[in-house]
Design goal:
Blueprint lengths: L32 H17 L5 H18 L6 H25 L8 H18 L4 H25 L4 H20 L5 E2 L5 H7 L1 E2 L2 H28 L7 H23 L4 E2 H18 L2 H11 L1 H6 L4 H27 L1 E2 L10 H14 L10 H20 L4 H28 L4
Antiparallel strand pairs: 1-4, 2-3
Length: 432
């Protein structure tokens, strides 16, 4: 534990990142709003000086990107474009959340793009060609992703085949199977008024919906932070000041209600964004607030140590790849929904190489470490906003795909380099 009981991003709850020094009776050594603001500022400064990539660094980068593109095209920050952006991030974001689960155990899944394309193709074939009801076709498509993840996990965890090799082979196998299912045309159009198409076209136009989600999210954060403070205080551990919790809650409320206001100026709250936020909440709770999540982080910290702690390493590994496959399939349905077709032949479609690259980039840019044990699903939200904002801005400017690919690759390289430097700094400070 570092000074003041701080905690690295992505570690299970057990220490309190940014907690202030306490007196012998467990009370904060300083009080008041000014002390809360000062503690928050010191935490940010300590993270930057210590070489850690906190969310504020990514937020600062995102703000710079938005300012640059707004200066180049005043339509970039328009309610229409931001609303479209909030929908466009969902498909890639869901795939990236699955990537986070695998990265946390120090592995990689290169098949997610192909799995997403396979799910979209399976849905289209069953619904359009075979006439199955949409909801059944959706369940089968998601189950296909889960089965593929179990297949990869079995070869990796029980047969000892490196995950890189297994998922690289899967990338080829499932992409080939997708092309086979789609047939000679390579594309199957789905019903534009159907269930899957509505995933990205449906909006809650009542302004109260967006504001209600903003209020619930803000209240949920405050209650979770206050509950954690109470637990730490009862245990005699360092804990955040109430003023600091209120400060963080106020900043979150400002962002949440500003986003709600912007969305309401166009078509209201998108259903796709609401589903994405729900997945983030559930995933983050499972990883950070449950015993199972602590096992995942422990496995990312070291395999042998996890075994000695009684963790079923093979089972957890298989389950992480199953989660990755399931979310890849789910994300593939959202990509198919936005295109109203199943086709891996376009650069932005499910099954394309760009979906894989963007998903990995979103996870790493957001702060999930390639070295395991650090990261959270919420990091994906910032990462995918960075990636998709760049794509959206260059699209408005008419930049060709070739240039977009190079820029995205450069951003990914920068994020990985920052992750490696962070790891090196932690090693020098004596962290595992």
């Amino acid at each position: 534990m570092s000074r003041g009981g701080s905690q690295r991003d992505g570690e299970p709850a057990g220490t309190d990142r940014g907690a202030v020094p306490v007196t012998a009776d467990g009370r904060p050594s300083t009080r008041g709003w000014s002390a809360g603001l000062r503690a928050y500022a010191l935490e940010v400064r300590g993270s930057v000086q210590g070489g850690e990539r906190g969310p504020l660094v990514v937020i600062a980068g995102l703000i710079v990107i938005w300012i640059v593109f707004q200066a180049l095209d005043d339509k970039f920050l328009s309610p229409r474009n931001l609303s479209n952006l909030s929908v466009e991030i969902v498909g890639t974001g869901l795939v990236a959340v699955g990537i986070v689960f695998v990265l946390l155990i120090r592995e990689i899944d290169l098949s997610v793009g192909s799995v997403s394309g396979l799910a979209g193709a399976a849905f289209a074939v069953l619904n359009v060609n075979q006439g199955w009801p949409e909801w059944i076709a959706v369940l089968v498509a998601v189950a296909v992703g889960t089965a593929v993840g179990a297949f990869h996990g079995f070869f990796f965890a029980w047969l000892g085949v490196p995950a890189f090799v297994v998922t690289l082979a899967g990338l080829l196998i499932w992409n080939g199977l997708t092309l086979y299912l789609l047939g000679a045309s390579g594309t199957i159009n789905i019903d534009e008024e159907g269930l899957v198409a509505s995933l990205t076209s449906r909006h809650f136009e009542d302004a109260a919906a967006a504001y209600a989600v903003a209020a619930l999210g803000t209240a949920g954060y405050f209650l979770a932070a206050h509950r954690k403070r109470s637990r730490h205080r009862a245990a005699g551990m360092p804990y955040r000041q109430t003023a600091e919790i209120w400060t963080r809650t106020g900043l979150l409320a400002l962002v949440a209600f500003a986003a709600a206001y912007t969305l309401n100026r166009f078509q209201g709250l998108p259903l796709a964004l609401l589903i994405f936020l729900a997945v983030l909440v559930v995933s983050d709770y499972a990883l950070r607030r449950t015993r199972y999540g602590r096992r995942v982080y422990a496995l990312g910290g070291g395999v042998e140590a996890a075994r000695r702690a009684g963790i079923g390493v093979e089972r957890v590994r298989v389950e992480m790849f199953m989660v990755s496959g399931t979310l890849a399939a789910f994300g593939g349905l959202f990509v198919a929904s936005s295109l109203t077709s199943a086709s891996p032949t376009t650069a932005r479609a499910a099954g394309s190489g760009m979906l894989l690259i963007n998903a990995i980039a979103a996870a790493v840019i957001g702060g999930t470490s390639l070295f395991g044990g650090r990261g959270s699903p919420w990091s994906v939200l910032l990462g995918v906003l960075v990636i998709q904002s760049i794509a959206s801005g260059m699209g408005l400017l008419g930049v060709e795909d070739a240039v977009q690919f190079m820029i995205t690759g450069g951003v990914l390289l920068a994020a990985v380099a920052a992750d490696a430097l962070t790891r090196r700094a932690e090693t020098r400070r004596g962290r595992p």
